[in-house]
């Protein structure tokens, strides 16, 4: 497997913050606890990653179906809005007035003719261009903007953005690689697999506020080891097991990853005895909840993590994006956007909704995750100078064709240390 | 005459208040087996954000399409889910009869759920409204359809005990 290293991605972007911290001498097999608590580390991550040379998930094209349809979102802690313009293209704009910085868009979704900041009614087109402002020439012959005030110099900033198969991505950086180069072949293939160019149908959102650092969720999604132990539903019903055919592939120099497995159904093997939460006696009254209908993915589950904060994945027949929004050093928001295809029949839509019971804040296999991450955050916060150990599956960062491995986390911290200059 | 209409509106509202209070008590006691007895066999039970509900998006955080799915949820909570112990208190108010549809009673009520974890102050976990369709059986009222529409923008960490 070709793990494409990505020089530009690894090169540190500028951040005024200098961190006086020493990484444990063992290197990326150790994770110092202060990366989950230190406000300076958090601010540097916002600068270097979210506002830096990365591509960030903003939404799905189907969320803004008509001219003027918008959806609010965040890239790191920066508010943005994606909107369909008069030409039918999708823009990603900073969600702040060029005047004093107020959010111009206060709702999650909606439809507008143009944007007007409620504070002083500066008015912008759907492309972010400043069209006018009240009292530009003053009132009663007094006041007003200087004669040389140029509207064109005060537009809302439009981010570089791309549409890949109906998913919208944006970057604050003019120096970021093209989206294709940034993702690399393996990650791109996963996105294309889930968004094959068919029209998408939005099914809904779930949002949760998890009291842990954003990287803990990233690590959780790069950690198949826990999934083979913690999640009884996964291992019992064969949705995700240590003895299934699987792959863990770090890409983008460790920033991204592909993690896939196969649904092999309920079975007992030698490995079962190690999975103490396997429940041979566990039966369901409605087995359809854990039984997918055959679809294009042929039982293949999992997906790709696109650094810094998005994952595209399939579980049973539920298709969804996961988006992590950091909310300070010790909290993050996790948003699932569930979708199907416009040509789905009624039965398939029903199954997608039914299988969504497996995931999200009340999901049979992910209620535990957010509960666990809270415990991990509490554990590391009290001991900032100690560290975690990630040696399962060895001490290297090579792709693995097995599940019991922490290779993706090691590869991530190899990338992270370099980019953060730690 | 239609059984649902035989009562005075006041009597029906009082009966519904008792029904909702009993429902709340079951959840507060974590008596999950008792909880599902409030539902008809062909029930629909969904916990859905106001965001999805208002936009006409069908996704529920919990979406039980029949009573067997409620039974499975109880199995999951009792047998497989790993979660921090908590005490919940449900406060139900604003009971209102919205009308009748054949034999069925359409009703709604507000809910607020306070959560107490073992090492923290109690906090408001969720607030919203029940939108119900109830049927009268020889054993009393049962829920044929319940949408728990929560106003919270986000779930506070996880949603373990149903609403």
Overview of the structural elements:
- The complex is a heterodimer of chains A (422) and B (163).
- With 422 residues, chain A is α+β, with helices and mostly antiparallel strands.
- Chain A is built from 9 helices and 19 strands.
- Chain A has helices at 7-10, 39-50, 179-194, 214-221, 224-227, 232-236, 346-355, 367-381, 407-420, and strands at residues 30-32, 56-60, 69-75, 78-84, 90-94, 109-111, 115-116, 123-124, 130-132, 160-164, 167-171, 200-210, 247-251, 256-262, 300-306, 310-315, 318-326, 332-341, 387-389.
- The relative contact order of chain B is 0.22.
- In chain B, β4 (104-117) and β5 (123-137) form a beta hairpin.
- A 6-stranded mixed sheet of chain B has the order 2-1-6-5-4-3.
- Chain A binds chain B through residues 108-109, 202-211, 230, 232-233, 236, 277, 279, 282, 284-286, 289, 333, 338, 349-350, 353-354, 356-357, 360-362, 364, 367-368, 370-372, 374-375, and chain B through 47-49, 51-52, 55, 57-66, 68-69, 71-72, 75-76, 79-84, 153-160.
- β12 of chain A pairs parallel with β7 of chain B.
List the SSEs and their pairings.
The complex is a heterodimer of chains A (422) and B (163).
Chain A: H1 7-10, E1 30-32, H2 39-50, E2 56-60, E3 69-75, E4 78-84, E5 90-94, E6 109-111, E7 115-116, E8 123-124, E9 130-132, E10 160-164, E11 167-171, H3 179-194, E12 200-210, H4 214-221, H5 224-227, H6 232-236, E13 247-251, E14 256-262, E15 300-306, E16 310-315, E17 318-326, E18 332-341, H7 346-355, H8 367-381, E19 387-389, H9 407-420
Antiparallel strand pairs in A: 1-19, 2-11, 3-4, 3-6, 4-5, 7-8, 8-9, 10-11, 12-18, 13-14, 14-15, 15-16, 16-17, 17-18
Chain B: H1 9-28, H2 32-36, E1 39-49, H3 50-54, E2 62-64, H4 67-80, E3 86-101, E4 104-117, E5 123-137, E6 140-150, E7 155-156
Parallel strand pairs in B: 1-6
Antiparallel strand pairs in B: 1-2, 3-4, 4-5, 5-6
């Amino acid at each position: 497997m070709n793990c494409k290293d990505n020089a530009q991605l690894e090169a540190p972007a500028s951040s005024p913050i200098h961190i006086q911290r020493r990484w444990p001498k063992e290197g990326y097999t150790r994770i110092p606890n202060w990366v989950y608590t230190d406000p300076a580390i958090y601010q540097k991550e916002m600068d270097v990653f979210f506002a830096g040379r990365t591509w960030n998930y903003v939404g799905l094209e189907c969320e803004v179906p008509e001219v003027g349809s918008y959806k609010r979102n965040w890239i790191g802690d920066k508010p943005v809005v994606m909107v369909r313009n008069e030409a039918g293209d999708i823009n990603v704009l900073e969600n702040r007035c060029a005047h004093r910085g107020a959010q111009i868009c206060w709702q999650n979704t909606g439809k507008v003719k143009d944007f007007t900041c409620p504070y002083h009614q500066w008015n912008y087109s759907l492309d972010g261009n400043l069209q006018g402002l009240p009292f530009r020439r003053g009132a009663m012959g007094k006041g007003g903007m200087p004669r040389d005030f140029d509207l064109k110099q005060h537009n809302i900033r439009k981010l570089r953005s791309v549409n890949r198969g109906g998913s919208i991505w944006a970057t604050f950086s003019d120096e970021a690689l093209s989206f294709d180069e940034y993702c690399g072949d393996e990650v791109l293939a996963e996105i294309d697999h889930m968004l094959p160019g068919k029209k998408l149908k939005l099914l809904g959102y779930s949002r949760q506020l998890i009291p842990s650092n954003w990287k803990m969720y990233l690590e959780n999604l790069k950690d198949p080891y826990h999934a083979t132990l913690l999640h009884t539903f996964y291992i019992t019903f064969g949705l995700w097991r240590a003895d299934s055919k699987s792959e863990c592939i770090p890409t983008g120099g460790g920033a991204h990853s592909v993690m896939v497995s196969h649904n092999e159904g309920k079975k007992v093997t030698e490995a079962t005895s190690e999975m103490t939460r396997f429940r041979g006696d566990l039966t369901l009254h409605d087995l359809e909840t854990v039984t997918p209908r055959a679809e294009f993915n042929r039982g293949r589950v999992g997906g790709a993590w696109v650094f810094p904060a998005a994952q595209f994945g399939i579980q049973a027949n539920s298709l969804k994006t996961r988006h992590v929004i950091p909310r300070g050093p010790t909290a993050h928001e996790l948003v699932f956007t569930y979708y199907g295809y416009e040509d789905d029949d009624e039965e398939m839509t029903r199954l997608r909704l039914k299988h969504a019971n497996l995931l999200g804040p009340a999901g049979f296999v992910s209620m535990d995750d957010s509960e666990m991450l809270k415990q991990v955050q509490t554990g590391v916060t009290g001991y900032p100078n100690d560290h975690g150990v990630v040696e399962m599956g060895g001490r290297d960062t090579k792709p693995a064709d097995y599940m019991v491995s922490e290779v993706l986390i090691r590869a991530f911290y190899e990338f992270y240390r370099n980019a953060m200059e730690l | 005459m239609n059984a649902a209409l035989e009562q005075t509106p006041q009597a029906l509202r009082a009966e519904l208040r008792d029904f909702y209070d009993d429902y709340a008590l079951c959840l507060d006691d974590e008596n999950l087996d008792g909880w599902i007895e409030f539902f008809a066999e062909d029930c629909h039970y969904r916990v859905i954000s106001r965001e999805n509900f208002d936009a006409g998006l069908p996704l529920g955080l919990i979406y039980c399409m029949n009573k067997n799915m409620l039974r499975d949820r109880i199995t999951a909570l009792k047998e497989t889910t790993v979660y921090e112990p908590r005490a919940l208190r449900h406060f139900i108010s604003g009971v209102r009869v919205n009308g009748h549809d054949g034999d069925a009673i359409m009703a709604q009520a507000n809910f607020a759920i306070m959560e107490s974890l073992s090492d923290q102050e109690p906090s408001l976990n969720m607030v919203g409204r029940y939108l119900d369709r109830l049927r009268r059986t020889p054993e009393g009222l049962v829920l044929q359809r319940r949408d728990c529409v929560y106003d919270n923008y986000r779930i506070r960490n996880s949603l373990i005990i149903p609403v």
